[in-house]
Amino acid sequence: MTLAEHKRFFMLKIAFSPIYKHPLPENHRFPMEKYELLPGQLLYEDIVKEDNFFEPKPLDEKWILNTHTKEYWTKLRHLSLSKSEVRATGFPLSKELVDREITILNGSVQAAVYALQHGIAMNIAGGTHHAYADRGEGFCLLNDIAVTANYLIENKLSNKVLVIDLDVHQGNGTASIFAGKPDVFTFSMHGEKNYPMRKEVSDLDYAVPDGTGDEVYLKILHSQLEIILKDFSPDFIIYQCGVDVLKSDKLGRLAMSIEGVKNRDAFVLGIAKSLKVPIICCMGGGYSPNVAKIVEAHTQVYRLAQDLYF
């Protein structure tokens, strides 16, 4: 077996949650295209093989209720959210949509279990950090980051989880869910003037001004993670690696380049590798008008994972 074959054989496992199987209005469809295109790009570049993918089953509701309230889950399951609650999610509510979210949850949970054995795993979907315990917001119905962290802790697979959320939008739902809980540290580095307008309080927040580019962004990130790791020693990391920090992103308002995003991801994965702390990556947001640029930005983290871990 050649070295290249060996690397592919032990390649990271990827949770692939299927895209919507019902029509969506055009303004909702665009953000979802990347989830269909990214697997194809990974296969085309020979970063992964077909057997590196797994499509998880829906997560047992026991673990959903370990994070989300029974009242909210019941309304979601029976499609009985109010019009205002549906509007806050940004999606037309349907059974297919709810089923997809439940599948995404188990994608992250199973990726975390895999990462405990092999160091790293990825969820092509996930990063649904705007979902609160009792409501959905911002294209997020259920919070896979929170569900996964709680699953790890409840099953004594982890004692201290660090959430590194570098999406351009604050992880408000995650911050709210873990407020006052010392076994999960939430770090959100996000656009100062971006959604959500009313921010929650993470364990550490850093609001980045509009127009921030690579050099300043990376300097801030390095310093903030150094501060966190002085006082908090995680035994698991959940990384929300949204690419809506790109200058080209129509919702981002920052000015990062593709190379800057690559350096960001390399830094975070490098920390996890050097500390020997398992990590999962959830893709998060990305809304550049050119979908190829979104796919390229997401693909980078898979290339880095291959180079660093395998």
UniProtKB/TrEMBL annotation:
Top-rank lineage group of the source organism: Bacteria
Gene Ontology process terms (BP): epigenetic regulation of gene expression
Cross-referenced Pfam families: Hist_deacetyl (PF00850)
Sample GO molecular function, one term: hydrolase activity
Entry-linked InterPro entries: HDAC_classIV, HDACs, His_deacetylse_dom, His_deacetylse_dom_sf, Ureohydrolase_dom_sf
UniProt keyword list: Hydrolase
Location of the Histone deacetylase domain: 30-300
Family recorded in the similarity comment: Belongs to the histone deacetylase family.
Protein name according to UniProt: Acetoin utilization deacetylase AcuC-like enzyme
